[in-house]
Amino acid sequence: MTAVLTNLFDGVAYGMLLFVLACGLAVTLGLMNFVNLAHGAFAMAGGYVCAVLVNRSGWPFFAGLPLAFVSAALIGVVLERLLYRHLYTRSHLDQVLFSIGLVFMSVSAVDYIMGSQRIFINLPSVLEGQFDLFGIGIGRYRLMIVVICGLLTALLQLVLAKTRFGSRLRAAVDDPRAASGLGINVPQVFAFTFAFGCGLAGLGGALSAEILGLDPYFPLKFMIYFLIVVTVGGSSSITGPFLASLLLGIADVAGKYYVPKMGPFVIYTVMIVILIWRPNGLFGRTAAR
Amino acid sequence: MSTTVTAQSDVAHSAIVHARWHGGEIAFWLIVLACAFVFPSRYLIMTDILRLALFAMSLDLILGYAGIVSLGHAAFFGVGAYCAGLLALHGIITEPVLALIVAGLAAMVLGFLTSFLVIRGVDLTRLMVTLGIALLLEALAERYSNITGGTDGLQGIEMQPILGIFAFDMFGKTGFFYSLIVLFLMFLLARRIVHSPFGLSLRAIRNNPLRAAAIGIPVNRRLVAIYTVAAFYAGIAGALFTQTTALASLDVFAFEKSADLMLVLVIGGTGYLYGGLIGAVVFRMLQELFSTITPQYWLFWIGLVLVAIVMVGRARLHRWVLWLPNLLIAQISGRKDAVAIPEGDAS
Fold it and tell me: How many other CB atoms sit within 10 Å of the CB of residue B231?
């Protein structure tokens, strides 16, 4: 019984991590309808920045995390201004090709600079090991992930639902023309949102080095996971992707624990079945224009 | 005889004119054949290009003609490759041509079954489903490594002579001519398909599915049909891969394979059959060039090419490339735009 609960906890932590990694994509892909397969590249950038700061320059881990966010967001905003914004109106095929190209470039660039082996980030001793809570083994690192990601999720929901920027974003997504007619600077809103999503991915990348493993092939390996979160979760709110990532996290951890031989088979099958059953995602409205 | 030309006969006339063999096309195939005799030491890489060309043609059928964006076309390639490998390894069907067709049919069955999943939903769902199917097959092949050989691949495949007469030699000469003949026959078939009323209806679907349905084209049935045919082509390409290299490993299902294929097609241009063939040649040359410059990091340059192509714009790029040939032809024969610019791309 306790093993089940421990697994469940690990699954939740994994799922929350996936959510932080993928929620930026939920906005670009789900709301702005831009097929960005290169989302994982921003996560990887954040992860590597954090690793270099912590391991080589001796920064504390908790100072590395915000830096991971900032650097990924900066890269995001530069690329958005330079490249991405020209492609918003292009066909999906163009967007796919472009983002695959970016993935390829990031993979070999990181391979060139950092080497191809998996890297680890030195954790402070506070975060190592696990403790027992009512007999359930809870990893300290995973608990921290749950706390950080939980707070971020609540914050995001609040920003989207309650603030002026949130309503601008929703307006810009629903109808860009009408929104700009009302004086909303749509490109600016998109650029900011894109950068913020990339920043979150960077933060997620830094957090995930311990759990998912960080190597140059990170964007390719986890691309499908991010896409699953968004397509299965739908795009009407961030609740959908959130639930989808929890589901995915729990299913993946449980699958690896109980039927290790089936590998990722379970996940892909579930995804295909869900997409056949509800092409617009479990909780979604249509993303097509 | 009436003097007014009805719309129907007009369309039929222009379709027939388009379906005729141009001088350029005959020249193209003559050049391909000439390559076989000009570079006798390069059979292996030329065979590789031919396989890639066939595979790209397969994607062109669904992407360029029917507008289905697929990220998992390697699935069918892989099924064809493993099917041909297993048939040869266990001595079930030892004759390569027959095994080739059987492998193609196996991929075709898979294509038919999965087509129903693919035609549902919008672009994004299609991307995910095709990608998911390829990943699923890769996971399956890894899981049942007792059959597929796992990461080591199928080992010890020995190919019997083609039709019992032509044995595969170590320089790849037989393999090359075998691939060339298969490619040419498949090309003829594809050419027949895309110029038929069926092919025209596919283009109508690509340009506007709603309008196509309104004029009475059974959209879903046509998409299922072309997806199945494309799967057959990819399966044949995969089987050719196994037969000419005596190798089949998990790589055949890899995402990179599908992504590379997209690049091949985009370089060559979508929506006309020569796109895949030209793209395969250019892609392989680029790959050779990059891997001689930086053996380990050629992926970076491939990525850069992709980004550059998209940023410049595919249509504009093709106009630049075709500017000189068109100018020459216009000067010589007084016609305009003799070399076809690929039609509007899939959206």
Answer: 31
Which of A35, A93, A262 is closest, CB to CB, to B143? A262
Tell me the sheet residues that pair with A119: A214
Can you give the pLDDT at residue B7? 67
Structural domains counted in chain B: 1
Containing domain of residue A163, as a range?
Answer: 2-219
The enclosing H or E element of A139 equals strand A136-139
ipTM for the complex shown: 0.81
How many C-beta neighbours within 10 Å does residue B70 have?
26
- Residues of chain A under the 50 pLDDT cut: 286-289
Residue B236 belongs to a domain: yes
- pLDDT category at B111 given cuts 50, 70, 90 is very high
Q: Residue B345: its pLDDT value, please?
A: 42
Is position A289 within any domain? no
Nearest-CA distance from A230 to chain B in Å? 10
Any domain includes B176: yes
Residue B250 lies in a domain: yes
Cα separation, B146 vs B123, whole angstroms: 36
Give counts: helices (H), strands (E), chain A.
11, 2
CA distance A26 to A248: 15
Q: B192 lies in which domain range?
A: 39-254
Gap from B41 CA to chain A (nearest CA, Å): 32
